[in-house]
Amino acid sequence: MSEGDVRAEFATQFAFMEEVLERARRAGAQAEVYWSCSERLPVNFEAGRLKRIETTRHHAFALRVIHEGRVGLTSSTVAGEPAEMVERAMAAARYGPEAGFSFPSSDPGADPGDWWDDRVAALGQDVLVDWGWTFVTGVHGLDGALAHANLGRQIGATRIINTAGLDAVYRKTAVSAVFVAEVTEEGNFLHVYDWDASTRGDLDITGMAARVVEDLRAARQNVVMPPGEYPVVLAPRAVRDLLGPILACADGRAVQRGVSPWRDRLGEEMFHRSFTLVDDGRLPGAAASCLCDDEGVPTGRTPIVQDGVLRSFLLDLESASALGLTPTGNGARGEMADGPPVPQPTNLVIPAGEQPLADLLTGMRDGILVENFMGAWSGNLYAGVVTGNVALGYRVRGGERVGRVKDCMFSVNAFTALKEALGGISRETRRLGSVSFPYLLLERATITSRSD
């Protein structure tokens, strides 16, 4: 995808979309045509060896119609026969769900280019391979570790048009890196990793590799953690799991269907006043930033929780209409665009706090620093329950990591913890693709373990 006009670059696909839309209009339907295209260059290393380099190109088309009050949807990966696509969608509408929404007419505006970076678009496989070798040569064999790396560059474009007059189009770049160090020995399996993704060429490859090495060395000494209730500092990767119940309950479809218990709680103070959670679809550099959602609604900054108060749900067109609210730009389709849009977060942000991480760790006296969980979505999300194995965690005494804790399970009610047990928020934050989080101190959480 060049710097030239994207409309000219994909003239065939655009002409197909426009003919599909016109045919659906003539058939008496409200209609929306969605198209996305991406080119991906993944580079994979396994056990210290370059394993795969492969460029792939992907197209997805979707037609959604509203006819006689019902919704019909069809999709394709090629610009085929417009009449056939319209016929399929109209046939689906005969038995489709009732339509409680209309397609948006407001245009999100011209693409400002904020999610396109020429440096990323120009990245070749040689650069990605060099990044991988830099990590692999520095980690493979260190303390018996195997080194794995997955790197990728993606460039793409999206266009959405509808019979209400919407015509939204934008381009986007993305680059990602995952670095893993793995140790397998009798009675011990250790998996340490770091990752990031960005729309810009700003990945800190050296810093990511250094963090993996630092965590690997800190985790090579196993220590006992007796069962009990402990203060816990959650690293940014673990914070994402703690937010699972909030995101589940703030999902507009869950609210619409009565699954979420939060329907009548907007404006209520539900969390500690220091806690804020924002969905920001235009966060600079963040992986999920874009012009609009997959229904053409402009993205923006949506406070889900502001100073402890529940302020908003994440809404697509359907859920917003059913709840009498304004859509928030969170309607998302799957990669193949073969299902209806559903509410999903874009970029999640918890603003930085005032305390240095070192002070949070020192203040625990004897506690756990959890880097990431495994299976932490296994609890009852709508009741706030988060339970999961501590995949990587450290016992902390006097502010220092004294060793890795094994065979531990973490259990907490996220709603209660973030209201009554939130003891601090670090001023250090980490971007992890589409999230930007600080470290959170929970003053108490239940830890069960097999202590020797």
How do the helices and strands line up, and which of them pair or pack?
Elements lengths: L5 H4 L1 H16 L3 E17 L2 E5 L2 E12 L2 E7 L5 H13 L23 H4 L3 H15 L6 E17 L4 E19 L2 E11 L6 H15 L2 E2 L4 E7 L1 H7 L1 H7 L1 H5 L20 E4 L20 E6 L2 E2 L6 H7 L7 E2 L9 E2 L4 E2 L7 H8 L1 E9 L10 E13 L2 E6 L2 E6 H7 L1 E11 L2 E15 L3
Parallel strand pairs: 8-18, 9-16, 15-21
Antiparallel strand pairs: 1-2, 1-3, 1-5, 3-4, 5-6, 6-7, 9-21, 10-11, 10-15, 11-12, 13-14, 16-17, 17-18, 17-19, 19-21, 20-21
Give a quick rundown of the structure.
Helix content is 24%, strand content 39%. With 452 residues, it is an alpha+beta fold.
Account of the 3D structure:
Strands 1, 2, 3, 4, 5, 6 and 7 form a seven-stranded antiparallel beta sheet that branches. It is built from twelve helices and 21 strands. Helix 2 crosses helix 3 (82-94) and helix 5 runs parallel beside helix 6. It has 452 residues and is an alpha+beta fold. A hairpin with a 2-residue loop joins strand 17 (385-397) and strand 18 (400-405). Helices cover 24% and strands 39% of the residues. The protein is globular and about 70 Å long. The protein has two domains: 6-212, PmbA/TldD fold, CATH 3.30.2290.10; 222-452, no CATH class.
